[in-house]
Amino acid sequence: TRRITVRDLALAKERGEKWPMLTAYDAMTASVFDEAGIPVMLVGDSMGNCHLGYDTTVPVTMDEMTMLAAAVVRGTSRALIVGDLTFGSYQEGPVQALRSATRLIKEAGVGAVKLEGGERSLAQTEAIVRAGIPVMAHLGLTPQSVNTMGYRVQGRGDEAAHQLVRDAKAAEAAGAFAVVLELVPAELAAEVTRSLHIPTIGIGAGPDTDAQVLVWTDMAGLTGGKVPRFTKQYADLRRVLGDAAKAFAEDVVGSAFPAEEHTFH
Ligand code: KIV
Ligand code: NA
User: Fold this and answer.
1) Which of 30, 142, 200, 210 could bridge to 24 as Cys pair (CB 3.0-4.6 Å)?
2) How far is the CA of 233 from the centre of ligand 2 (A)?
3) In the chain, where are the structural domains located?
4) Which residues are listed for 3-methyl-2-oxobutanoate binding in this entry (predicted)?
5) Tens digits of residue pLDDT in 52-102
6) Which residues are catalytic?
7) Residues annotated in the binding site for Mg(2+), as ranges?
8) Mean pLDDT of 137-147
9) Which ligand is nearest to the CA of 230?
10) Overall pTM > 0.80
11) Burial class (CB in 10 A: 0-12, 13-18, 19+), 233
């Protein structure tokens, strides 16, 4: 089997087929999703919150991203793996952006990179695409801008809605192969989806985008505390894993583990 390509995703849009994307941050989890048939995995800088214990995505470095993206690539054989360009690794301009993207391609082996911004990242997107690296854009709520934006629904009101459409068209014109729309009103996401030739991938963006992405730890119920309303939990991994750990602890304290069948003589 060969890996999914950005060309396959363009064809899916032509055929009107929707597809799922999940984040992944390690080889073992990624192999589970690969076997489950998830066609695209994002090694998101959400690893900051979900895997590395930071409060936001802002501190994540390209060293961390490269290491975990390489693990996800090693754990998969079918999915297209997309790696996030981390905060500070592309904002300086197209030369820095291309250097960061090239590193992820060469050292981690990803098939595409993602960056935040439409018009504001136009030169960066163009430079990376021109070098032959597929770029996924990320619009709406862009968590690397948490310090100016906060975490709230984006694109509300005429001016903000028009800007989002302009950003989406700028990303497409610059050569992006897909656009993530995070936390925007469903009606606006539907309008952007209709007005682009490239696929849109929604998260908290309603049902009318071409694809849907969820953070895997939210999707599987591993995340502690409150999860966003747009997430659906398909499992209760936090409880399952906690119960397993408690059962192991009880067995050790009560001398029930190891039993004869776990023991060598
Ligand atoms: O880092 C991430 O997980 C993301 C998705 C939410 C799109 O950027
Ligand atoms: Na991200």
Assistant:
1) 30
2) 20
3) 6-234, 236-265
4) 45-46, 84, 114
5) 999 999 999 999 999 999 999 999 999 999 999 999 999 999 999 999 999
6) 182
7) 45, 84, 116
8) 96
9) 1
10) yes
11) middle
Q: Report CA(246)–ligand 1 centroid distance (Å).
A: 32
Q: Whose CA is nearest to atom 8 of ligand 1?
A: 44
* Residue 141, token pair as written in the block: 């709520």
Exposed/middle/buried for 163, CB within 10 Å: 0-12, 13-18, 19+?
middle
Bridge partners of 81? 41
Nearest CA, atom 4, ligand 1: 44
Is the CA virtual torsion 209, 211, 212, 213 positive or negative?
negative
Superfamily of domain 6-234: Phosphoenolpyruvate-binding domains (3.20.20.60)
Residue listed under structure tokens 């854009």: 137
- 45 touches ligand 1 (CB under 6 Å): yes
Residues in the chain: 265
In what helix (H) or strand (E) does residue 82 lie, and over which residues does it extend?
strand 80-84
Token reading at 47: 């690893």
Q: Token match 């990320």: residue?
A: 138
Please tell me the residue having the least CA distance from ligand 1 atom 6. 215
- 31: its two tokens: 């192999």
Ligand 1 atom with minimal separation from the 201 CA: 7
